[in-house]
Design brief:
65% of the residues lie in helices and 5% in strands. By secondary structure, the protein is mainly alpha-helical.
């Protein structure tokens, strides 16, 4: 039972000592990126720097014990931080203490929702946030992060928080740029770009903030107007019961639901990618629970909502991390920083954090996928762009909801108006296939083979009947049989069964026999439970289209022979 809920324990019992050196190196490398990134993301979400460090210790331990991925690193994430800020700012923007309290409650709510989702085996919902939506969402988050950091990069205090307003205010105040701050920030961005291209294994964020901090300390840049992080509280967080206005709980719950969904889907994309690279499987439901426990740990340690961190997971994999020990080492190293090494953090310039966040924002913008979507599916391309625009103009949560609603409408449209085809024998192709656009295709005289590209259900039952009537009306000659290939039907509801029965009656009234091929699974069960299969008759139910065609030809031949025999008998009688 313990192994089922805490797969990390079972893995640790089977741990191979030969993995320890690379796991330790990978863990230290992850921590080297996690510490400055956590500080930067804390400021992005509106917290003190140490809050990001609090969110980078216990959640790693929790996921290492409860998660099914051996490599996923969890921690502060840019997209999740943007959603946290979008949820909390309208509720507690003017009270820092209340802001942290609300963040704790939000993390606990996300944790509870995720654990419940995993226990109810709702891991499949990761498939509902389609790749175009996630791409558009991340593009929007990336652009909003970049816009939000322009003020810090240029040394301009900005008050606006919305994308358009930020750009407009930035444009108005551009003349008050602090030259030294901008020079430092741009130099650090160039450094990060060079390190990423020349030495990708070196922790760029750590080097960037270290160089920035050294420059501030060595040249006393604070006296020349360069803003810095300032004092960072060391030691463990003070634990207390958070205070929340009951009227705000509903808004927090709505935000928590959206954050749980998006952070889980994002984490699953990362976990699945690295599991596939390293040839092992993950349990989506268990990871839902694990992410929930990690967020509970973040809330209990006065941190904020966390998610899967793709860049840190990639670093762990690149350095050679083999197991979840990597995450435990990273947690221990971060804890040492929290306890003993927060002093140097106060020298980090705000421009250095802006440089780290701008590079993170650029990394989220995925132009290559947009190009592919534009080439492959115009609808999905437009859906992705709509998601980005929605995130930028109406906010993170409404933008996602708009995109998901559009995707659901498209899905319903595809279900309610599925394609269909008349099948025949196409030279060079095995079996019976769509004859549209194939002048060399051959059909069987007296027989129509028809495929409806969805299960007949309440949402498309009328279209199912309309299309069959249209096919019969457009036929060059009235068929004797209508063979329905049910290969695309995997389920059948009452309305769909009634539609099949109505078509059977209508065809029978015209002297046409309805036959069904490839009836299987829940569709076949629905036909039998509804009694429609009995009315069609077992002699008209076939395992394949080919066997249905052979049966038709056999019966047509027998009918022709019977007719010939009767005609011969009549001639003999007349003679």
């Amino acid at each position: 039972m313990t192994a089922a809920w805490m797969p990390g324990l079972a893995d640790l019992r089977r741990y191979q000592g030969a993995w320890l050196p690379t796991d330790v190196l990978a863990g230290l490398s992850v921590a080297a990126i996690q510490v400055p990134t956590a500080v930067a993301y804390a400021t992005l979400a509106g917290f003190r720097p140490e809050v990001g460090l609090y969110a980078s210790v216990l959640p790693l331990v929790a996921y290492a014990l409860f998660g099914s991925s051996r490599q996923l690193i969890v921690g502060p994430d840019s997209a999740t931080c943007a959603m946290v800020a979008a949820t909390l700012l309208p509720l507690a923007a003017h009270d820092p203490a209340q802001y942290v309290d609300y963040s704790v409650v939000l993390a606990l709510l996300v944790g509870v929702l995720s654990v419940v989702g995993g226990m109810l085996r709702l891991g499949f919902i990761a498939d509902f946030l389609a790749r175009p939506i996630l791409t558009g969402f991340l593009n929007g988050i990336g652009l909003s992060i970049i816009a939000g950091q322009l003020g810090k990069l240029f040394g301009i205090p900005l008050e606006s928080r919305e994308f358009i307003e930020q750009l407009a205010e930035f444009g108005r105040k551009l003349g008050s740029t602090h030259g030294l701050t901008l020079t430092l920030g741009l130099a650090l961005i160039v450094l990060l770009i060079v390190l990423k291209r020349v030495a990708p294994k070196i922790p760029g964020p750590l080097v960037g903030v270290a160089v920035g901090g050294l420059a501030v300390f060595a040249f006393d840049l604070t006296s020349r107007g360069v803003r810095v992080v300032g004092e960072v509280a060391g030691g463990l967080p003070s634990l207390r019961i958070p205070s929340v206005d009951p009227s705000d709980v509903r808004a927090l719950a709505v935000g928590a639901l959206a954050i749980a969904l998006v952070s889980y889907c994002s984490a699953m994309l990362t976990a699945r990618s690295f599991a596939a690279k390293n040839r092992y499987e993950i349990d989506a439901n268990q990871d839902f629970v694990a992410l929930g426990v990690a967020n509970l740990a973040a809330g209990l340690s006065r941190g904020f909502v966390i998610s899967g961190a793709d860049s840190r997971t990639a670093v762990s994999n690149a350095v050679g991390g083999k197991s979840r020990v990597t995450g435990l080492v990273a947690a221990a190293a971060t804890a040492l920083v929290v306890l003993f090494l927060t002093g140097p953090i106060r020298y980090i310039p705000s421009a250095a954090l802006a440089a780290v966040l701008i590079m993170a924002g650029i990394g989220l913008v995925d132009v290559a996928t947009l190009r592919t979507l534009r080439r492959v599916s115009r609808f999905e391309f437009r859906l992705s762009i709509t998601t980005t625009i929605g995130v930028l103009l109406v906010g993170v949560l409404p933008g996602i909801l708009i995109a998901v609603a559009l995707a659901i409408l498209k899905l319903l449209s595809m279900i309610t108006r599925p394609g269909d085809a008349i099948l025949g024998d196409v030279p060079g192709l095995d079996g019976y296939t769509d004859i549209a656009g194939r002048p060399d295709a051959k059909t069987v005289p007296g027989l129509i083979i028809y495929r409806f590209d969805a299960a007949p259900l309440f949402v498309n039952a009328d279209r199912f009947k309309q299309r069959i009537r249209a096919v019969i009306a457009e036929a060059e000659a009235k068929p004797r049989w209508f063979l329905y290939s049910a290969e695309a039907a995997n389920v059948l509801d009452f309305t769909g069964a009634d539609a099949v029965d109505q078509i059977r009656d209508e065809l029978a009234a015209q002297g046409i026999t309805l036959a069904i091929a490839r009836s299987r699974g829940l569709f076949n069960a629905g036909l039998h439970r509804s009694g429609v299969a009995d009315r069609i008759g077992a002699e008209h139910m076939f395992p394949s289209v080919r066997s249905g065609v052979q049966a038709f030809l056999g019966r047509a031949k027998a009918s022709a022979e019977d007719g010939s025999a009767k005609a011969s008998a009549e001639r003999e009688a007349l003679a």
